[in-house]
């Protein structure tokens, strides 16, 4: 199926409804270290103009602002932006938050010295359009820095488990392709010179396998929305399937979860 046959706007409407369900920042806030590592890998400098795309509750924007960059975050989920503003206010960080679509960023061409996304832009259904937008808003010689879950890692397995209960829309590429060097080369071509490609691991830490399942069903918007459509034996089976996801990746031997989740940290220079 060609991209012209896919109704990306309808898909994004459903995605937005998913992210606005539950309370994603309860999960997303635990991923702050990914953003801190990404801005260091990108060598962000004070007073640079930085854009955090699909920012959620603002992890990367806030990481850049802590380093005295001029940081802006953009996302299409209003509730996540509201929490980002609350966090920035509490930490006295001057971050600007804008409501907008990663595939149609509400900012001018060549406006930013550094464009970031931590496990955010990868969820845009039209991968090529999202990549084109990242290039459009980055100044020549500026950097694009991305942290994306890999297909083979724990989060990739989580998405495969969820897809058994809610198959993804036809014609939409898996989000975890952003976690592969080959897909980034296809999306960006010679417009970006990738100067750093590093496989890293984030460790998900929970009280138990069941606690992991419960937390994601309660707070991770798309999973929360899916769980809300299930009941009885189906809900119990879905909960058990989620609980199994971290098992193979768990390095803890005390009954808790310390599950390694691989992601690709990519830093490139925009030509």
UniProtKB/TrEMBL annotation:
GO process terms (BP): methylation
Family matches, as InterPro entries: Methyltransf_11, SAM-dependent_MTases_sf
UniProtKB keywords: Methyltransferase, Transferase
Residue ranges of every copy of the Methyltransferase type domain listed in the record: 51-145
CDD domains (UniProt xref): AdoMet_MTases
One function term, GO molecular function aspect: methyltransferase activity
One family name in Pfam for this protein: Methyltransf_11
Organism domain of life: Bacteria
UniProt name for this protein: Methyltransferase family protein
Annotated organism of origin: Kribbella orskensis
